[in-house]
Write a structure and sequence with these properties.
α3 runs parallel beside α5. The chain has a 4-stranded parallel beta sheet, with helices on both faces. With 145 residues, the protein is an alpha/beta fold. 39% of the residues lie in helices and 14% in strands.
Length: 145
C-alpha cells in the first residue's frame, strides 16, 4: 500500500518504552526523518518531561536532527514512584505506557502501535510478570497466540 497517495490520516501510537534506555533517543531521531509520509499522525505515550530532558541532552551533545517534544503530541503520563528502586520505577512506567498506548490504538480507526524497547527484568521488579510486550498485547486483545 502506498501511504503517500491516500487521503486518510493514519495514526501511529508510540509507547516510549523504558525511559532509562535508548527508546526516547530513537524516537526523537526517527520522528525528525523526512522519509515519514505527511498523512501520519503520531501520538507518543510517555513522560513529556523525560522526552524534553532527552532532547535537551542530545542537543547539548551537538545533535541537531531531532524532533522537538514541544512540537509533538504526547499523551503525558505521570506515573508515581513506588520507592527508591529506579529499575522498578522505570519498569512500572514502561508497562503503564504500553497499556495506555494499547488502549488508544484499540479506540482509534486507522491506528498502529510502535513499541519502544523495555527491560523485562524491570517489569518483573515492578510486579508485571509478562515475558514481553507481545504477551501484554495478546492479553489486551483477548488472543492466546
Amino acid at each position: 500500500m502506498n501511504f503517500q497517495n491516500t487521503n486518510k490520516i493514519l495514526k501511529v501510537v508510540l509507547s516510549v518504552g523504558d525511559e532509562s534506555g535508548i527508546g526516547p533517543e530513537i524516537i526523537l531521531k526517527a520522528l525528525c526523518s523526512s522519509q515519514i509520509p505527511k498523512n501520519v499522525d503520531f501520538i507518543l505515550v510517555g513522560s513529556k518531561k523525560n522526552l524534553q530532558n532527552t532532547y535537551e541532552y542530545l542537543r547539548s551533545l551537538g545533535l541537531e536532527n531531532l524532533a522537538n517534544p514541544k512540537n509533538l503530541k504526547i499523551h503525558d503520563l505521570e506515573i508515581s514512584s513506588s520507592g527508591s528502586d529506579l529499575k522498578s520505577n522505570y519498569g512500572n512506567s514502561s508497562f503503564q505506557y504500553l497499556t495506555k498506548a494499547i488502549e488508544i490504538v484499540k479506540q482509534s480507526p486507522n491506528a498502529a502501535l510502535v513499541t519502544g524497547p523495555i527491560c523485562k527484568k524491570s517489569w518483573s521488579l515492578a510486579g508485571h510478570y509478562f515475558s514481553g510486550q507481545t504477551e501484554v498485547l495478546a492479553k489486551a486483545c483477548g488472543v492466546k497466540n
